[in-house]
Design a protein that fits this description.
Mean pLDDT: 91
Strand content: under 5%
Number of strands: 0
Low-confidence stretches: none
Number of helices: 4
Order of helices and strands: HHHH
Distance between the termini: 6 Å
Shape: globular
């Protein structure tokens, strides 16, 4: 079980992760990614997998239901909409799908793994 102190730590990490993700998504000069197929989509999937874990660990007494995952998905959509106003950035449905895939991977695999390890 996650202690009260750890919850606060996860909330701080979630806030920090959201600040960093927002900066990375909205800076006019995108951070270079490895020259591999779909590396951008993999980065989105991994980022939202981590965000989903942090959101879930921040409020462990609540299940990973719509209030948690929908907030993350709406955040991702808002970022994509904001990117239409930033030079060198574009709106991408593929990014939104990758974000959703990261959240779903946590919901269907991450939670199971955490339960097996006795952390949830």
């Amino acid at each position: 079980m996650i202690s009260r102190c750890n919850r606060e730590g996860f909330r701080l990490l979630l806030g920090l992760a959201l600040v960093v993700a927002t900066w990375l998504a909205l800076t006019p000069q995108p951070v270079p990614l490895p020259d591999a197929p779909l590396s951008d989509k993999w980065a989105h999937l991994l980022a939202y997998l981590v965000l989903a874990f942090l959101a879930d660990a921040s409020w462990p007494d609540r299940r990973f239901t719509a209030p948690k995952w929908s907030g993350l998905l709406l955040y991702g959509i808002a970022i994509e909409l904001l990117q239409t106003q930033i030079p060198n950035r574009v709106f991408s449905i593929g990014d939104i799908v990758a974000n959703g895939a990261g959240i779903a991977l946590y919901a269907f695999g991450g939670i199971y793994l955490l339960q097996r390890l006795g952390w949830r």
